Amino acid sequence: MTEEEKKEYEEFLEWKKEHKKDLPDAEEQPIEELLSETSVPTEQDSVQKPDKVTYVLAWAWVHRKVVLLTLVILSIILMIVIGSVKNAKKAREEYEANNSPAALARKAREDSIARVNDSLERVEKLRIDSILHERRVKDVKHSIKIKSAYLSHPNSAGGVDAYFYYKNCSDKTIKYLVWEGMPINAVGDPVTCEIRDYSIFHGRDTGPVKPNSSGGGVWECAWYNWTAKKLEIIGVRIEYTDGSVFEIKEDEIPLIK
To answer: CATH number of the domain at 144-256, please?
Structure first.
């Protein structure tokens, strides 16, 4: 009830009181009760409660979402199952194909062919290695021939001279020849120069030494050691006038002696 209505109601009650005798009897109702009955609705009262239709619509929406999610999950599971079945089938087919009698026979034939090929490759490699070795031996033998290689007796200071002479067995002119050697004592062990503190000595011979001609010379006091008795050649490097180089390793030295 508004203030204006309340005021009008109070004026009505005053008028009723003054004219009470003229009006029929009626139970008077306090203004507070009337105000309570006719009170203004609150904000909470003005909020409408959801009706049955609203609940039904909300449940239908949730139900649809649950159904869709369930369908998605089932689809994923179905795809996984189908993929697993396909993979299992493929693996089984591959196993059967690889282990069938025909497949086993084919594999055995292929393995046999592979072993034969490996054997042929090894044989061919041995043949090529043999040819190369024979060619190398021939080249070494047709390079030079060591005519002599020895040491002099020690002088008063223990110095020994190295003598090295060779023949050019190739068809090319030798420009430089470098021999590599070390002194050996009476029991076959290498010794060291007691002054220069080395064991291996490099003697360089300068040409030109034409084919079938001889070269070499004497290298004085190559070592200082009273026990040096023998000169052992362990390598030769030949440089020809055409610019080519030929090296003879230690294990090939016996071929040129």
So the answer is: 2.60.40
